């Protein structure tokens, strides 16, 4: 499992940022630890209370091979 620290995915590689979707669902966006591409979770991704993400996260960059389970370090699940 890949551990990701909190940060700005648009500025750093391998970090996450809390995101609130238009429907009020709390989620996150991450930057790929390999290539830095920004990854937006799909409706199928769930973040548990400890920050574990299921299913695994795959980079959208076709040239990148990142596809792993991740844990969002410091995740606190809150309502919008």
What can you see in these coordinates?
A hairpin with a 5-residue loop joins strand 5 (46-47) and strand 6 (53-54). The model has no long low-confidence stretch (mean pLDDT 92). The protein is mostly beta strands and 80 residues long. The termini are far apart. The strands form three sheets. A five-stranded mixed beta sheet has the order 4-3-2-1-9, with no helix packed on it. Strands 5-6 form a two-stranded antiparallel sheet. A two-stranded antiparallel sheet has the order 7-8. It has one domain. The chain contains no helices and nine strands. The chain is globular and about 35 Å long.
Describe the structure in brief.
This protein is mainly beta and 80 residues long. Helix content is 0%, strand content 39%. Strand 2 (15-20) and strand 3 form a beta hairpin.
Figure out the total of helices: 0
Which segments are poorly predicted (pLDDT under 50) over 5 or more consecutive residues? none
What is the terminal-to-terminal distance? Answer: 27 Å
Radius of gyration: 12 Å
Report the portion of residues in β strands: 35-45%
The beta-strand count equals 9
Question: Percentage of helical residues?
Answer: under 10%
- Molecular shape: globular
Structural class: mainly beta
The helix-strand sequence is EEEEEEEEE
| Strand ordering within the main sheet | 4-3-2-1-9
How many separate domains?
1
**Average residue pLDDT:** 92
Largest sheet: 5 strands, mixed
């Amino acid at each position: 499992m890949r551990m990701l620290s909190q940060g700005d995915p648009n500025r750093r590689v391998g970090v996450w940022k809390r995101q609130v979707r238009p429907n009020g669902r709390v989620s996150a966006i991450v930057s790929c630890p390999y290539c830095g591409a920004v990854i937006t979770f799909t409706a199928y991704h769930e973040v548990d209370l400890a920050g574990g993400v299921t299913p695994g996260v795959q980079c959208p960059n076709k040239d990148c091979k990142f596809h792993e389970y991740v844990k969002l370090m410091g995740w606190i699940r809150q309502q919008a």
